[in-house]
């Protein structure tokens, strides 16, 4: 399928230049020059049966790059640096306005930044309007699928301003091994990779994130705790929930209690920060537990429950709580009770409900 059957002007494949690096159409004579430069690294990541391609196959591949350009399905460029053919980059039609990128640099030329320079130049051409003085493809998005074990290739994508967007699990085969691939993408409207905004966006897309939970410790005049009987799990739990992106843990507690119990409350202090280790298929998380300002013993009468989440509310004494809550919550409530009994009014730092042991 053409990149854009309506507007892409027919014509010769252009030559793109960035300093000493030239991206130009492949020629028959490049086939012989580059064939011996193929190595096991390329064979592995492109899943080629042979490390060095057969001469006729390689020539036929060069011919095919010309046919693909003519039919508008793919543009492949040899990378020429200081007069040598050092690698190859390409963009193929994925869907209207979207191109899929691929790249390779031959072993003797790696580690000089040639791949990221080439991909950045290719992407600039992809995003250049079709009616510009030096026309491009006028794409709105480019993307690449990279094996996460291929660190150099991930770096090439990130240095070229592509952002990590997600993992495609079990998406590819290398030989008979099943592998994940990481999908990375860049929009024409994204900031350039060399800018502060571009650098921040690139890093932000790939740094780990962790689930954050906010919960409230609500007590009545008898010192009993408010526990929610939930519609989706067996154990009862403190009111609260998962903190939304851009939301603070304390605001989350106030919001969740408003959404699920239809009550307006305020939080007074942070009682504990509790790291929860991975559990029953859930990834690890950080739980912030806040004391909720006195609410009055009639809370359970005033609350209107969001029934798809909360079945019932219960006032439970601290001694009875462990038989209703999950083990990690029982440990945390015990730690909170012990701190209170000892007159400790600071914020507890807990791991899996227990005070962190020094040196652990
Ligand atoms: C992936 C591949 C293209 C990377 O090629 P490359 O030319 O070495 O990659 P880069 O241009 O990004 O340069 C990488 C290194 O050069 C270094 N470098 C040196 N000078 C540099 C410069 N002026 N600018 C940028 N990087 C420079 C970088 O620090 C970088 O090191 P790092 O990756 O350890 O952080 C190459 O390893 C390859 O062809 N692999 C096999 C094929 C393949 O995997 N293709 C991708 C399939 S999705």
TrEMBL record:
Gene3D superfamilies per record: 3.40.630.30, Nucleoside Triphosphate Pyrophosphohydrolase
Top-level taxon of the source organism: Bacteria
MF (Gene Ontology): hydrolase activity; protein N-terminal-serine acetyltransferase activity; protein-N-terminal-alanine acetyltransferase activity
CDD domains registered for this protein in UniProt: NUDIX_Hydrolase (cd18876)
GO cellular component, one term: cytoplasm
UniProt xrefs under Pfam families: Acetyltransf_3 (PF13302), NUDIX (PF00293)
Entry-linked InterPro entries: Acyl_CoA_acyltransferase, GNAT_dom, Nudix_hydrolase, NUDIX_hydrolase-like_dom_sf, NUDIX_hydrolase_dom, Ribosomal_N-acetyltransferase
Keywords, comma-separated and alphabetical: Hydrolase, Transferase
Domain Nudix hydrolase: 208-338
Domain N-acetyltransferase: 21-189
Protein name: RimJ/RimL family protein N-acetyltransferase
Organism: Terracoccus luteus
